[in-house]
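Hello K.,

You asked for the raw outputs rather than the summary table, so here they are, unedited. I folded two proteins back to back in the same session to keep the settings identical. This is the first:
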Amino acid sequence: MTDFDETRAAFHLPEGVVYLDGNSLGPLPLAARERLSAMLMQEWGEQLIRGWNTAGWYVQPRKVGDRVAKLIGAAPGTVVMGDTLSIKVYQALSAALELNPDRRVVLSDDGNFPSDLYIAQGLLTSLGRGYELKVVGPEEVEKSIDETVAATMITEVDYRTGRRHDMKAITAKAHRAGALAIWDLAHSVGAVDVDLTAADVDFAVGCTYKYLNGGPGAPAFIYVAPRHADRARPSLSGWMGHEAPFAFDLDYRPAPGIERMRVGTPPVIALTVLEAALDVWEGVEMRDVRAKSIELSERFIAGVETACPGLELGSPRNPAVRGSQVSFRHPHAYAVMQALIARGVIGDFRAPDSMRFGFTPLYLGAADIDRAIGVLADVLDKRLWDRPEYHRKASVT
């Protein structure tokens, strides 16, 4: 049984703040400060360049990848860390298309994170040869899979509404139609139960700065199913993905297995912070996290609908088809959210009219939820949001 009092104590949480935005950026794990200081002074400071060998920096992407693998139902040796999520999306999609060369359609949905669609649009434009990105509504994905589709590229949990796709069913439908399945787990890993092996997924990618609390700019990961690991060609043929990087050959030869999906120099400082963040997950049962997340989100929805009847629920009502976030709509959602943040309740805004709240049981409890409901009701009842400073949009919303 997961001890959520213990996990809460593992984070730095600013006094007086209810943090409902862990679905965008997780809070600071206390252990990260000490771990990072030791890395900076004892490893980089004392060992200098020797740290690549003596401190294990070179193998860090695979080592940390194996720890992430445990959280997404992947076998050891199938996940590697590094670079950004956009790069990992590019790698997964380009590899999938080469594995299915006679087809030209990539299927996604309009609930996918726009960055994934941008990457697909850029790649398909570069490839030419009749490639097409087909974007449908989330409810239309499964029935849109046919024999023209080379790959599906879906974010499991919709970043706006929290709507959760049925990964196993969509992957099975893709395979029956001869397509490959790529999944973005940005809003899944650390939030919902994921089992890539059971779902028979081909490729998966994700970030680590949300529910895994790896910090701003924390490195992304990529998963490749074992059946594809030695066939998938990394179109970004980076030095670290070479079979023998320090032979300094002029011709690229991909490394065996998941190592070929490494691209650039590992972000050692960021990976060190992530390692400390992953320590929090030792002894945590994902089923407990999921159950508590549902309990907290259901409490929030019920409380908001009672206290703030003018708001419209923008997320699925059934928690079984919802991730670990809830959205409510309001015509002045941005201003309302700014008023909430000014009063110590932090969520975020997603255009055009959604206030988004994340539920992360590692550091949230029922008292936090009740306080957030009370502050939201006060902001709406008294129109505290209707001030000029709350309507001025910042660069990051």
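The second followed immediately with the same parameters:
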Amino acid sequence: MSHDVPPPPGPPAQPPNSGVPSGNSFDPASVARPDWAILGIGFIVFIFSFFNYYKWEYRGLGINLSSTWSAWHFDHGLFIAWLAMVATVVGAAVVAISLFSPAVQLPQPARALSFLAFAVGFVLYLIAIFAHSDFGPNGGHDFSFWISLVLSGAGAVIALMRAQQTNTALPGPLASLPRIGK
């Protein structure tokens, strides 16, 4: 006597166009180019944080001395550049979470958080130009600092553009910023 037992039911099917990727169906082509730019900026700023943010050199009287510091050096007010880097990377990470893990609930819309993080990073980089110990005439900011400053500013502009393109409400007076991009 054989009993035909039906197989157990599978997971419920996703409704069409639910916006939730099913399984391994992520399509990189579905990500807008500005979003890839935001992700790339965060990655590049993180990588450059390990290179020279500050430098000091002395050459004279037969003596050659030099020293460099990355964003991961926290003495003498240099932590501000580290904090700027972290804010910039967080701005990119928020977009990554919204794209690759849409089920994760963020406290605010991802586009608004991304713009705010990039903007804070950019302002902190500007502050870091002036808020460190005096290196004297033989020292100052190095190439990674300047690249990160420019990239965080570009990230803020692109993140603002994406927030406006996706009709994301920005908080307070930021809501009245002029529209940029298409």
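The beta strands are 54-60, 63-69, 139-141.

Happy to rerun anything if the numbers look odd on your end.

Regards,
P.
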